[in-house]
Design brief:
This protein has 347 residues and is of the alpha/beta class. The chain has 14 helices and twelve strands. The strands form two sheets. It has a seven-stranded mixed sheet with strand order 1-7-6-5-4-2-3, sandwiched between helices. It has a five-stranded mixed sheet with strand order 8-9-12-11-10, with helices on one face. It is globular and about 75 Å long. The structure holds pyridoxal-5'-phosphate.
Length: 347
């Protein structure tokens, strides 16, 4: 139902921003069942991140990934700049560094697989250590979906997704979600959503729920494509490094094999030459779209360091992040190969 307001009953004051509706709840029920908790939907992934971050009391101490989704990094930077939070950026794939940063922390923010470097965090070890110091743990599982990683199995307090990505799957809406298993935590996050106006639209929730119906089959195809393309990219002379946890050569391969049910469908790779050469690859792709975002049925590529914040967090200037879609793998490879090998193009 696409309505924000409703006729008053004798003792209710029903309004969509706090009252939600059946379509939004249906999406939340599905996500809650997939993760094994209670889900709250938000108007975007960043609205969900904000509900967690800005819901912390002033003076919170947050251990956060030094390289992570740019919006999350920017939000924590703002908290620090405004004097509301002490923020400790660490390489979350370096378990010893995280353990060293934890004493005194009240929040640990993790990504299952880091964006855009595709590093794999040791969730159970890091979460247990955070709990030892009394810190709340939130895991951004956007790159993984509940089909690849279920952070509650590793002890997480809050699981976050940008539903803009794989969950909805068609690059046509913005939505976020938080899942918790503690009623008190859920109530606090719901209050944040009501107070800050984070409720998603009903139409978006409908589309996300429709997209969710094909998540399993979309992801299966996208992951198979990614595994194949990663191996071919690794052998390509114009590619200097491939970051994909499904490759035996990848530093995150062992952990991902142990903790994840699949290797996802995101690949980052570095091309030989300069940033301009890498940009040129993005200009030459024809089937793959040169655009930001990820997790949709259509493949997307971009040079991440074109975003100023990614450049400052150490993303290599020639790193291209490829969100592998569900197209035919031979079509994807033909496109990548021609984009990487311009000299061989017919003139
Ligand atoms: C996209 C993304 C977000 C933010 O989600 P939006 O829906 O764009 O607000 C957060 N975390 C990760 C890992 C993302 O990829």
């Amino acid at each position: 139902m696409l309505s924000a307001t409703f006729h008053h009953g004798p003792d209710d004051n029903y309004y969509l921003r706090s009252g939600s509706n059946d379509t939004i709840r249906a999406f939340e029920d599905a996500l809650g069942a997939l993760e094994g908790g209670t889900a709250l939907a938000f108007g975007s992934g960043m609205a969900a991140v904000t509900a967690v971050v800005e819901g912390r009391p002033a003076g919170a101490v947050a251990v956060v990934p030094q390289s992570a989704y740019s919006g999350t990094v920017a939000l924590f930077d703002e908290q620090q700049r405004m004097g509301r939070m002490e923020v400790r950026p660490v390489d979350i794939t370096d378990t010893a560094a995280v353990l060293a940063a934890l004493p005194g922390a009240t929040l640990l923010w993790l990504e299952t697989v880091t964006n855009p470097m595709l590093g794999v965090a040791d969730l159970p070890t890091l979460i247990a250590a955070a709990h030892d110091v009394g810190a709340l743990t939130c895991v951004d599982s956007t790159f993984s979906t509940p089909l690849v990683v279920r952070p509650f199995e590793h002890g997480a307090d809050i699981v976050m997704h940008s539903a803009t990505k794989y969950l909805s799957g068609h690059s046509d809406l913005l939505m976020g979600v938080l899942v918790t298993r503690d009623p008190e935590l859920t109530a606090g996050l719901k209050l944040r959503r009501d107070l800050t106006g984070g409720m998603p639209g009903a139409l978006e929730s409908y589309l996300a729920l429709r997209g969710l119906r094909t998540l399993a089959i979309r992801l299966e195809r996208a992951q198979a494509n990614a595994q194949d393309l990663a191996a071919r990219l690794e052998a390509h002379p114009a590619v200097t490094r491939v970051r994909f946890p499904g490759l035996a050569s990848d530093p995150g391969h062992g952990l991902a094999t142990k903790l994840h049910h699949g290797y996802g469908a995101m690949i980052s790779f570095e091309v030989a030459g300069s940033a301009d050469d890498a940009e040129a690859v993005c200009q030459r792709v024809a089937l793959i779209n040169h655009a930001t975002s990820l997790g949709g049925v259509e493949s997307l590529i971009e040079r991440r360091a074109r975003h100023a914040i990614d450049a400052t967090q150490g993303t290599p200037p020639t790193l291209l992040r490829l969100s592998v879609g569900i197209e035919h793998v031979e079509d994807l490879w033909a496109d990548l190969d021609q984009a990487l090998s311009p000299a061989e193009l017919p003139r």
